[in-house]
Amino acid sequence: MKKIFFTREVRLGIVAVITIAVLYFGLNFLKGINVFSPTQYYYGVYDNVDGLIESAPVYIQGYKVGQVDEILYDFSASPAFRVRISVNKDLQFPIGTRMELADDGLLGDKMIRIVFPEDRTARLHVSKDTLDSKVAEGMFADAAAMLPALHTTLDHVDSLVCAAQMILSGQELQNTMASVERTTANLAASSGELRNLMKQDVPQLLADVQLAVNDLKFVGANLKQVDFQTTFGKVNGTLDNLQTLTSKLNDTDGTLGLLMNDKELYLNLSNTLSSADKLLIDLQSHPKRYVHFSLFGGKKDKD
Predict the structure, then answer these.
(1) pLDDT less than 50: residues of the chain
(2) For 62, left (φ over 0), alpha (ψ -120 to 50), or beta?
């Protein structure tokens, strides 16, 4: 009779083992534990873990290098809590490395932060050593430290608000707003007048300009018909005649030249005109000296 090794019970056992293995690796994977990576463990002691839980992350300069592996407590001892962290085996912690319990975000979560000492040339911790432990001040502690400065800032803000309220309720601002309103009204009126001007006067002005342009075109067309060469020839002839006349006037041989240039002749003419003027004046004053007239042929007056 042939023996059957994979009985129903064996198959169920194999499935159970595989299920347990998958569950174990899955849970560790969800916790962020790499079961295939070699790890080393370190401890820290605290009086208060302040909400720290297992599987909380462990950071070095903001980079996750491990997690909280176990939290042991003994309230009869001091400190009461002993926290074990697991990190990659390649990490080396110099003597003086510190485990700080710190806030992980604004939701109140906690984490472990590894802080290296300044001197990293000292000898190293070995796995399962207890590191220096410290509870870091959280963001709310920093906010509490900032409260005095915040209070002072709020006082200044309150003063600024009061000053702004006084300015807004002051008569000067009201006068300014009234002036702005008047200016806006004037601008609106000016804009209306400008629109009317653009609608009424500007078209008429453009029509007049167009008429003037048409007249200029007409004048230009007439100017094109003018014989400028003949006109300029006549003008040149007239200028030549004026030049000849001017030459004759400046010549002392001619009559006009003598009249214009002979000083003695000018004096004689002036004296003659003066004598004629005196004669006319005497004639008007004593006409009987020069006119003798009688209807009856009487004796002439001796005078």
Answers:
(1) 1, 295, 302-303
(2) left
